[in-house]
Amino acid sequence: MIRLAANLSFLWPDRPLVERIRAARKAGFRAVEFQFPYEVPSAVIKAELAANHLIALGINTPPGRANVGELGFGAVEGREDDFERSIDEAIAYARGCGAAAIHVMAGNVETRRRPAGRDVFVQNLRYTLEKMNICDKRSSSKPCGIERQKLTFLLEPLNRYDHPMYFYSSVAEVAEIIDEIAAPQLRLQFDVYHVARGGADPIEQLCRYYSCIGHVQIAGLSARNEPDTGWLDYRRIFAVLEEIGYEGWVGCEYRPVGDTDVGLSWISRLIS
């Protein structure tokens, strides 16, 4: 059974974040996800989610300076301190609002620096996982200071068309890092839009890499609008997800063409 989650950084863009939570519940969603909700205190988000009986799936690590196009620091040489601060902030926020996962953003890296960037990224991911293991073994009162909860860390390739400088663009690159680190908390965030926009067959990739998938996101191709726009066959994609035994949520991370609620009519057309 396909379980849809609302990405509240994309849906209902005409209203504040807290009101988007209420809109998601009214529209029938049972889970939500965010990209960068940091401007709203995590306690406010947690309270609003509880009031609307919604599950928080995940957030992204802070991107850095949005005005210059930064997309995180995971694989960026010389920004290790910035990475540590960003992952600490993301962990604290996720725990504060009850989110179950964090997408660890790799950042923009020049082509010639990507081999070195990979080493930096692996080191940063190991640091994060070690930090979490240490925290999980200690009392919640020290030194983490926040009630403990298990977190999953997600890695997501972004397509070169939209993000030409991003560290990685293929599922294979992410899968290699996940295999190398071999930690159960580290999983692939499979964004059907990014995979297809990058020129790969999302169905073939789903079947090949299903064992390391921790979360799935969807949008239509090519304008990243509702899933029933463009040429992607989401009826088939949803069927494949069920065939491979995917039991997680599917995040609706698309830009509505018009009114979000009107656009949600795609659900009844594509999911029976």
Description:
This protein is of the alpha/beta class and 272 residues long. The chain has a single domain (3-270), classed as Divalent-metal-dependent TIM barrel enzymes (TIM Barrel), CATH 3.20.20. It is built from 10 helices and 9 strands. Strands 3-2-1-9-8-7-6-5-4 form a 9-stranded parallel β-sheet. α2 links the parallel β2 and β3. Residues 139-147 have low confidence and may be disordered.
Largest sheet geometry: 9 strands, parallel
Number of helices: 10
Give me the CATH superfamily. Divalent-metal-dependent TIM barrel enzymes
Instruction: State the name of the first-level CATH class.
Output: Alpha Beta
Q: If classified by CATH, what would the architecture be? A: Alpha-Beta Barrel
Q: Please state the overall shape, judged from the principal axes of the Cα atoms.
A: globular
Low-confidence stretches: 139-147
- Element order: H for helix, E for strand: EHEHEEHEHEHEHHEHEHH
Structural class based on helices, strands and sheet pairing: alpha/beta
- Average pLDDT taken over every residue: 94
Numbering strands along the chain, what is their spatial order in the largest sheet? Answer: 3-2-1-9-8-7-6-5-4
Q: How many angstroms does the end-to-end distance come to? A: 10 Å
Total domains: 1
